[in-house]
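MODEL INPUT / OUTPUT PAIR
PAIR INDEX: 1
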Amino acid sequence: MCTVPMSSLFYFFKESLQGFTRNLSTALGSIVTIFLSLLIIGVFMVGGVMVENMISSVEEEVSITAYVADTADQESIDSLMADIRAIDGVASVGFTTKEQALEQFSQTASADIIESLDGVNPLPASIDVELTDPQVVEQIAAQIESNATFRAICDNPDDPAESLKYGQETVGKLFQLTKYVRYIAVALIGLLVFIALVFINNTIRLAIMARRKEIAIMRLVGASNGFIRGPFLMEGALHAIIGAGLAVGALQLLRMYAMPRIASALPFITIDVPGDAYLMIFAILFGSGLILGLLGSAFAMRRYLKV
């Protein structure tokens, strides 16, 4: 019972190779298109992992600093800290005194700046808020700003919003950049998939036209639809597998030779991509390539092969 399927698969493979050599230039065009499409998709996926890593490292630094007036009493500060701890999305709440703020500033500022202070400490005390989810930073900041105790003891009671710092512009640009990058990636991937499908469709169409007499004879002798369609599906799959293999090989070369140089040139940016992520990307490319090949062949057969 296994002899027929195995012999059919062998026949399909042999015929797909003949179709490959019969329309070599078109087949190579299909393979190159699939290769470039999958390579660009793979580069975008690797870049996506890198961007996610960078965004995660930046998001970990997102926190809220609420500055309080020098005249604020400890009871009011403790009450405000308790109110902030009760807000959903707050991971921890700490307090930095004026002296601690000056000490931290001294570690980064030049000696000339410290001397120009002439012993005066202009820095306010602050309540430091760490978040469980950086995406909710603006909502939490708004709740703190509307707190009556905060408005009473903040260091700028005329404009309490000025007493809250959480990198408003940076956070907004970060989230906006993430959204735009995802939209662009989806649009580009969709375009590349469409181009690859068109090339595979044209290749299979030419193969069908080149074998139209043979197909007519096969119909007359009673060959099944599956037997007639098999070589064309195999040919589309063959193009896709070769293209996917080339794309994976190119990505592996980039991983081995380009990524270490980029990492050494940009040590201040987290661009490390785990090996598991590469394996997943390679598997996705092979799977996507095979689906592309089969879909392109199926579309061509549906239109040009009436069996």
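PAIR INDEX: 2
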Amino acid sequence: MIELRTPAEIEAMRPAGRFVASVLVAVREAASVGTNLLELDAIAHQMIRDAGAESCYIDYHPSFGGSPFGKVICTSINDAVLHGLPHDYVIADGDIVSIDFAASIDGWVCDSAISFVSGTADPEDLRIITATEEALVAGIAAATVGNAIGDISAAIGDVADAYGYGVNLDFGGHGVGREMHGDPHVPNDGRPGRGYKLREGLVIAIEPWFMRDTDEIFTDADGWTLRSADGSRGAHSEHTIAITANGPVVLTARV
């Protein structure tokens, strides 16, 4: 069911958005060459405790997950493109690191993701990160009252096409509110004008994620981490936004 939020409810979501953004900034600052992924999860976990927030991941067990997630952030490295389960891995020079994080404050959830290179960057890695960031900007710009979900999807897909990347449609954006994942689904490619008509009060996460040379994925043995089928590296960018009469408002903006 698609739920619309009042202006007061959108205001009530802002603390969660600011908190999610602050955690991503802190984790990115800590994620240098030689840092263990479990250290990053511990930083986020401590920030959750200090803020009196609640993790959306630690007990999360949807049908596509092999078990309850058990950690508070997703850490996807190189060819791991989504849902990376933090484990005993030390970040190496040149790794693409994607961090996805969602948390709840006072019962309201926000969700966001960033990708970056640790250490020496391959230009092709920077290119795919830039593509996801540009696609996110384009998708947000299309999230206006009177447009449709397909307009957001098409805007994202157009950026992917311009960069020469295929798009996987198994996972995409989604509604956000009292829970992390809700309706509507927001694919990362589509046709303009198709699907649910955007209305004031809709809150969604828009999350482009691309892979260099494939649009196919498989699930790792940990039951969670999604990897590109051919070992291609990938990147992921995401914001939670509210659609208002004055245009889209990014609730997870990082400052």
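PAIR 2 NOTE: The chain has four helices and 14 strands.
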